[in-house]
Write a structure and sequence with these properties.
Elements: E1 3-6, H1 12-18, E2 23-25, E3 35-41, H2 48-52, E4 59-63, H3 72-77, E5 81-83, H4 90-105, H5 108-116, H6 119-123, E6 136-140, H7 144-152, E7 159-163, H8 178-184, E8 187-190, H9 204-210, E9 215-218, H10 227-236, E10 241-244, H11 255-258, E11 263-265, H12 274-294
Parallel strand pairs: 1-2, 1-3, 3-4, 4-5, 6-7, 6-8, 8-9, 9-10, 10-11
Helix pairs in contact: 1-12, 4-7, 8-9
The chain binds ligand A2R.
Ligand A2R binds next to helix 7.
């Protein structure tokens, strides 16, 4: 049977399908010469020195849409196919983005604490919150998930504007400059890929442009936002609120961020429902099984689409 190296966890359902056709190896028990397949996830990816040490590697199947922890350019150079799981998580991640936005506007955490603490009975009605209706929402990265976010915001009458490297064939206003878009919007939602090209593109200047009444939502990668500048802006009130599902050095989250009242923090659960994770797991395995059968895959990353 062909040999598969497993990096990170897989579900029992995935394991049951894989072990029928692969010998599965863990990181502490494999011969680099015999590994032809790798299964990993968006967080662990594969370290460059490990990839370099596998001379007969054919395919790296990633669980998740983001693959910034895999050097796909180097893989393509070596004719190794990298796959990921696009589309099956669009709606779930978009729901997480909207959930964070609404939680910031309507102060869900503050008001939940108000009830639990007994303050409601002791002090009377909670302070008013801000309406999430009719907001201008800037989407940084109007791709598969970005479009799903735009669609999900329709019932709140959001005016969508967007920034990406190239304009898309959509009806929303395009900004070629991120700071200019931040000036124009009430809420900025980050949903670009991670990696060097987007590292800290949401910097102090962008956050200042978003302003004291502005809300930042990040459901992409922690690396996209300058976290130190973000904490400073939230502490000083030069930025109003932040809803964050991802962090620079996750699962470590700076204490300064955890101490702030004007943030909603989630432990990178954008796609983490039973249903969506099952669909992602199935596609991760489908890519491996199809390659074994006929040498093709279902969802290669763009860098490997020509292989
Ligand atoms: O820039 P473009 O025209 O390639 O548009 C893509 C945009 N994007 C960027 N925008 C600004 N600066 C950049 N350096 C940059 N690089 C890419 O992000 C496109 O509009 C969007 C990505 O869309 P998709 O490739 O369809 O990705 P999807 O499935 O929406 O997932 C986005 C990310 C994943 O990579 C994970 O990190 C995260 O969501 O879960």
């Amino acid at each position: 049977m062909p040999e598969l190296l497993q990096i990170g966890g897989i579900t029992e359902t995935m394991k049951a399908r894989l072990q029928k056709v692969f010998t599965i190896h863990q990181l502490d028990d494999f011969d680099p010469e015999t590994i032809e397949y790798v299964i990993t996830n968006g967080h662990d990816g594969i370290k460059p020195d490990l990839m370099a040490a596998l001379p007969n590697l054919k395919l790296i199947s990633g669980y998740g849409v983001g693959y910034d922890a895999i050097d796909a350019i180097e893989a393509a150079r070596r004719s190794i196919v990298v796959t990921h799981t696009p589309n099956v998580l669009n709606e779930e991640v978009a729901t997480t983005a909207v959930l964070l936005m609404l939680a910031c506007y309507r102060e869900v955490l503050r008001d939940d604490a108000y009830v639990r603490s007994g303050d409601w009975a002791a002090k009377g009605s909670a302070p008013l919150t801000r309406s999430a209706e009719n907001q201008t929402v800037g989407i940084l990265g109007l791709g598969r998930i970005g479009q799903a976010i735009a669609d999900k915001l329709a019932p709140w009458n959001a005016k969508i504007i967007y920034h990406s490297r190239t304009p898309k064939n959509v009806g929303y206003p395009y900004y070629d400059d991120l700071t200019e878009m931040a000036k124009a919007c009430d809420t900025l939602i980050c949903i670009t890929p991670g990696g060097p090209a987007t590292a800290k593109i949401v910097n102090a200047k962008v956050l200042a442009a978003l302003g004291p009444n502005g809300t930042l939502i990040n459901v992409s990668r922690g690396s996209v936002v300058d976290e130190t500048a973000l904490i400073e802006a939230l502490q000083n009130g030069t930025l109003g609120w932040a809803g964050l599902d991802v962090f620079d050095a996750e699962p470590a989250v700076p204490q300064a961020l955890r101490d702030l009242p004007n943030v909603v923090l989630l432990p990178h659960v954008g796609s983490a429902t039973v249903e969506t994770r099952a669909a992602m797991g199935a596609l991760t395995v489908d890519n491996l099984l199809q390659h074994l059968k006929d040498g093709t895959v279902v969802t290669p990353v763009p860098e490997c689409a020509h292989l």
